[in-house]
Amino acid sequence: MIRAYIVLAALFGFTGVALGAFASHGLRSQLSPAYLAVFQTGVQYQLIHALALFGVALLALLHPSRLLTAVGVLFTAGILLFSGSLYLLTLSGIGKLGMITPIGGTAFLAGWLCLVIAGWRIRG
Q: Per-residue pLDDT averaged across 4-13, rounded?
């Protein structure tokens, strides 16, 4: 899973930067300021959790555990559900997609909680 998390972190980082640039340059005239801010929130959370996922992969090299595997799954799900739903919401205008966003947010929170527990269990 470590290789997968490093690759996912890099892909999420790459696409986060690309989507941020796309929003700033390509969507500024297409979206309302409110929707542009929503899109940028998705980018921000994606980039933060891409870095966090990379850190989890490195930590798992030193201290492999099922909890760290869970963190990676939860951060990945969070990016896809939270950020992905915000991107789709702003680009499609379908407000019901906003119902998915809290599920992604909950995945982020659960991932951070699992990381707390995993960190607490590390000896040394």
A: 98
